[in-house]
Amino acid sequence: MLLHTAEFAADPHRAYAEMRERYGSLVPIEVAPGVPATLVVGYQAALRILNDPEHFPADPRTWQQNIPEESPVKPMMEWYPNALRNSGAAHARYRHAYTAAIDGIDLHALHSTVEQIAIPLINTFCQAGSADLVTQYAFPLVFEVLNQMVGCSAELGQRVATGMAALFDTVNAAQGMQMLSEALMELIQLRRAEPGDDVTSRLAHHPAELDDVEMLSQLISFYGAGIEPQQNLIINTLLLMVTDDRFGGDVLGGSLSTRDALDEVLFNDPPMANFCISFPRQPILIDDIWLPAHQPVVISMAACNTDPAIAANQYAGNRSHLAWGTGPHVCPASSLAYLIAQDAIDQLLDALPEIGLAVAPSELIWRPGPFHRAVTALPVTFPAAPPLPLP
């Protein structure tokens, strides 16, 4: 089963159902040509694996020794000195610094930040009566919010965003990593010398005393978790809200909130569909299947959330999905992600309440890639509106 094809991207839920019927909860796949892995599509199996870092550590160093440098997924899966790709004491050290840097973000001020970025963006297209919400709204909004959180200039941030996009698309991944690293290293040196109230400064001056390479890895992790998944969460939720009469009507009518729409998307079309990768130290038996040592085990959050064994038809207020992961590697910034996505969506729908999809949903193109769930564009139309007053 191949996760990196356009055919899979076009209809992953059909593929997940076929996988489950044929293989059960554990599916042999390729995450890239010639790179075998196991995809976990059963919710209970995923919980067991995510909560057992002793048998399913996140450290890929043994695995990557046999992966060619040119493999498109290597930059996304290989070892870095950060919380995501370590276990045990190293994981604890990195995660402590990382969560401290995130916890220092003022959520009240973040509301204002999103508004100050969203309204000028809306003003660039509100009079045109049409827009692509990926390139004209979600991406630039998320990118600028992240830049402000990490204390990054617009010029450095643009280089970061370009590099990160190449990484996620797994096309020019090595070039993307180089571009990303060079830009972030400049930011690290700046914030070591001139600290401010931002994520980079808090990391640079944390008691863990991270060196430059460790700092770089924490920032790559922050941007990696922030740009693509956050953009996709906003876009996938807007897609639901402007195409589903049941949901769109309820949302605009006020009986369901944007938060409810976000929860439904986090169940059915989470922005990171397949991730939370671990690498068993030795062969291990799960659900009567032997998983090989040092071969990736990839959690399909999208498939596990819709596992018929646990599937619920009620999403509002239901937080049992795995979109943020669970266990020691659970996402430490889910409250930030919710806030940014909800504010971005509310600002747009308040300004342009009659927004609608410009093409049939079947005409949308989903970007190939083993990890993300993302459309290439979200074209919409709406009655032209005058610019909003700036905050």
Features:
globular; three-stranded antiparallel sheet; 391 residues; 9 strands; alpha+beta; Cytochrome p450
Topology diagram in text:
Elements: H1 6-10, H2 12-23, E1 26-32, E2 35-40, H3 43-50, H4 61-64, H5 74-77, H6 88-103, H7 107-123, E3 130-132, H8 133-150, H9 154-169, H10 173-193, H11 199-204, H12 212-226, H13 228-243, H14 245-253, H15 258-268, E4 274-278, E5 284-286, E6 289-291, E7 297-300, H16 301-305, H17 334-351, E8 356-357, E9 379-381
Helix pairs in contact: 7-8, 7-17, 8-13, 9-10, 10-12, 12-13, 13-14, 13-15, 13-17
In short:
This protein is of the alpha+beta class.
General description of the model:
This protein has 391 residues and is an alpha+beta fold. The protein has one domain: Orthogonal Bundle (Cytochrome p450), CATH 1.10.630. It is 51% helix and 9% strand. It contains 17 helices and nine strands. It has a four-stranded mixed sheet. The chain has a three-stranded antiparallel sheet with strand order 3-9-8. The chain has a two-stranded antiparallel sheet with strand order 5-6. Helix 8 packs antiparallel against helix 13, helix 13 packs across helix 14 and helix 13 crosses helix 15. The mean pLDDT is 90.
